[in-house]
Amino acid sequence: MKTRYVIRQLVEKALLIKKLTPEIENEINSELTEMGYISDIDYEALELLMAEMDAGRIQLVSNI
Questions:
Q1: Where are the domains of the chain?
Q2: Could you name the domain of life of the organism this protein comes from (predicted)?
Q3: Is 48 helix (H, G, I), strand (E, B) or coil?
Q4: Mean confidence (pLDDT) of the chain
Q5: Cα–Cα distance between 42 and 61 in angstroms, integer?
């Protein structure tokens, strides 16, 4: 089984644009629901995203 690390890619997108959009958030939630688990790499990416949001470097937006 090949792991795709889709969540990590979505987090990278959020870090690049410095925003967590509803679309990115919904895609992350869909992946978590579909997979039923989270890989270590995806978990670390989500931790980084949360840390960046806590530090104010990533903004949660209602739309783009």
A1: 3-58
A2: Bacteria
A3: helix
A4: 91
A5: 22
